[in-house]
Design brief:
By secondary structure, the chain is mainly alpha-helical. The protein is about 65% helix and about 0% strand. The chain contains twelve helices and no strands. Helix 6 packs across helix 7, helix 7 runs antiparallel to helix 10 and helix 8 packs antiparallel against helix 10. It is elongated and about 60 Å long.
Length: about 230
């Protein structure tokens, strides 16, 4: 479920989006902008302005996200903020709802097919095959690893230094990009999957998912939200 982002989460997300090397991934991440190049140009202007303000008065930490949203027209700002609040930055505890459902579907698709007895055979096969086909991010990892081997632009080099990013996958901004893409693809998959179920199958899916989350001891701040409820927030 979309939630308010902390200042650090905003800074992390906007730093990633400002990168030249992030441009090719905008579409897969679902970033709701008409022009990735123009958006990054505006974003960089805001980041530089925020730095100048902080250098002038270090006691006042600039609200970079607010500054960016104020530079966009209202419909664009609302759409971007809604997307940003739902973007998964890779930490389960920060966005546990969709993260938990990804854990559930991944287990069902790759190692717990025997647990799908609550669905008719054809829907079990569809769940597994469609998840493996549509939620995988192997293509993103391949492109990212190729980018990691190439040179960085001057802007990207500076942001790498400021954010303390490294050349390994785990320490690179591409791990954040992959996390965003994964949940973006999961939500699209989940919408189609949920629409294919009747009411009884939806109830059975929810019960089975809750059971699996409990069995795996996955931390949740409360009960596992229903897919129906999560999809309504998108």
């Amino acid at each position: 479920m979309a939630k308010e982002l902390t200042a650090e989460q905003w800074n992390q997300l906007l730093s990633v989006l400002s990168l030249d090397c992030a441009g090719p991934f905008y579409g897969a991440m679902g970033v709701p902008v008409k022009s990735a190049d123009r958006f990054r140009e505006v974003l960089r202007e805001v980041i530089l302005e925020a730095r100048r303000r902080y250098e002038t008065d270090p006691k006042q930490v600039p609200d970079v996200a607010g500054m960016l949203l104020n530079r966009l027209d209202r419909p664009s700002a609302e759409q971007f903020e809604r997307w940003a609040r739902g973007a998964f930055l890779g930490y389960h505890a920060d966005q546990p709802d969709w993260s938990a459902w990804d854990i559930v579907f991944s287990r069902w698709a790759y190692s717990r097919r025997k647990d799908l007895v609550f669905l008719p055979e054809e829907k079990r096969e569809s769940l597994v095959s469609e998840y493996r086909l549509k939620v995988t991010t192997d293509d993103i990892e391949q492109l990212a690893n190729e980018a990691l081997e190439g040179p960085l632009s001057d802007w990207d080099l500076e942001m790498y230094a400021r954010r303390n990013w490294g050349a390994s996958w785990e320490s690179s901004p591409f791990s954040v990009i992959e996390s965003i893409v994964r949940i973006e693809r999961l939500t699209r998959y989940a919408r189609a999957f949920w629409a294919s179920l009747d009411e009884r199958e939806r109830e059975a899916t929810q019960v089975a998912a809750e059971k699996l989350i409990e069995e795996l001891s996955v931390w949740m701040p409360g009960a596992l939200p229903s897919l129906d409820g999560l999809l309504r927030t998108l």
